[in-house]
Design a protein that fits this description.
about 450 residues, alpha+beta, six-stranded antiparallel sheet, six-stranded mixed sheet, globular
Length: about 450
């Protein structure tokens, strides 16, 4: 796949816009090259390289919209795509929530592209898998995992003069290690924009150490425990809460930020004072696109939670217009402040508690309180007097991240966590939480 530079991409966008006869027109070009390698049972199972480049054009006649996509970039194909979008728009019903396109935006680059990641080749991917496979065989463990790397670009433009172009890279790695008899399991995840910050050997060793330590687990009675949650264990929980900071959800009574009687809880203290969360597209650890692709608005650094208080809500262009406020771009990352202690130091200062490596199979129970249910897995341990005493059987939990962040005992040093189901890249600390609610036991490892 050819990685289009800014000049090439702008030339294509200008050509598409010139073909349009609609009231408004917007263009998005996306291209990426994604390599992968998958291994299971201590051997490589699949490997591949996917390349794709696609242009999407959206037009509007008044409040009637139409969209078409094409993966050929000659003039004939581009004009045909515009005509299809216009034909669709003329047949479409009016969208009562349509808002006119935004004008020119100031898109400041966020430094998402790293040459070391773009240079990843099949030999590199094979070495990543080899670290886990060979160490697994040596330790009589069975390993499985998945490594992906992506190099890509995105360009947006519209008939109001807006234009943006970005290039980006990223990698993600997960590895599970299990004992041959299936009684012990460990897991690890790593993400980075820059391959120089990724160590496949270190990551694999974490999963294997947990697998070896989790054999012969004992049962603890379900109940409320002090827990030390690794960042990967909290990311899926917090991600669901971060995704509920939309002003419309709150104003319409559909989220935990809805106020009884109407309105929202902006400015209210809902969390422990230690809790500070913000989004920042220019963060050095998790840089993301300088714009929100949905709204085409420029992203800014924005506090979500400040000293435990709800600091900002996200306003779509429609909801902002309806309420007479400025719209906000949807965040692409979430950064949570922490302390200076490592996970090991948090464990060392815990009198009694449970270490949770990972939460899994998470489902929403109640959207208005963000009550979630799920399971622990791949390494759950009992701590006493600052030391891990023994592995324990996994639990089902019923807990809300809002309650969790009101029961913060101490926060550790934040680390990078890759995209969750809400697609945020995150920097999250390990955390010690009081009274975490385990409701039943699970025999799964």
């Amino acid at each position: 796949m050819k990685q289009l530079n800014q000049e090439e991409a702008k030339r294509i966008c200008d050509r598409v816009l010139s073909f349009s006869k609609a009231d408004e027109c917007s263009v998005a070009i996306n291209g990426n090259r994604s390599g992968n390698i998958r291994f299971a049972r201590n051997s490589v199972s699949t490997a591949g390289l996917n390349e794709d480049r696609r242009l999407t054009v959206t037009v509007a006649f008044g409040k009637r919209q139409g969209t078409a996509s094409v993966n050929e970039f000659g003039d004939k194909s581009l004009e045909q795509a515009v005509r299809r979008a216009e034909d669709t728009a003329r047949l479409a019903p009016e969208n009562p929530e349509y808002v006119t396109l935004p004008g020119k935006q100031d898109f400041k680059g966020t430094g998402e592209y790293f040459a070391a990641t773009a240079a990843i080749d099949p030999d590199y991917r094979a070495e990543v898998a080899a670290h886990a496979i060979l160490a697994g065989r040596k330790n009589k463990l069975v390993t499985a995992g998945f490594f992906t790397d992506t190099t890509g670009f995105e360009t947006i433009a519209n008939s109001k003069g807006l234009f943006g172009h970005r290039e980006f890279t990223g990698l993600d790695f997960t590895c599970t290690a299990r004992t041959e008899d299936g009684r012990g399991s460990g897991w690890v995840t790593r993400s980075a924009s820059d391959a120089k910050r990724f160590d496949a050997r270190e990551a694999s060793e974490v999963a294997m150490e947990k697998a070896l330590r989790s054999v012969d687990s004992r049962a603890l009675e379900p109940g409320r425990y002090t827990v030390i949650l690794e960042p990967a264990a909290t990311s899926e929980l917090l991600g669901r809460m971060f995704g509920a900071f939309g002003a419309r959800q709150a104003d319409e009574g559909r989220s935990f930020l809805a106020k009884k009687g109407g309105g929202n809880r902006l400015g209210e203290k809902l969390f422990d004072e230690q809790v500070n969360v913000w989004s920042d597209p220019w963060d050095k650890d998790v840089p993301v696109s300088p714009w929100d692709s949905g709204s085409m608005l420029a992203r800014q650094r924005r506090d979500l939670i400040k000293d435990g208080k709800v600091a900002n809500l996200e306003y779509s262009r429609f909801w902002a217009q309806k309420n007479g406020v400025a719209p906000t771009a949807r965040a692409g990352n979430m950064i949570m402040a922490g302390g200076s202690k490592s996970l090991e130091e948090l464990i060392a200062s815990t009198k009694k508690g449970v270490v949770v490596t990972r939460t899994w199979y998470i489902r929403m129970v109640d959207p208005q309180s963000v009550l979630l249910t799920g399971l622990t897995r791949d390494g759950t341990f009992y701590v006493e007097n600052g030391k891990i005493k023994y592995p324990i059987k996994n639990f089902r939990f019923n807990e809300s991240p809002i309650t969790m962040l009101n029961n913060v005992d101490e926060l550790g040093k934040p680390v990078i966590i890759g995209p969750d189901e809400v697609a945020y890249r995150m920097v999250i600390p390990p955390m010690r939480i009081r009274d975490f609610n385990f409701t039943s036991l699970s025999d799964a490892v």
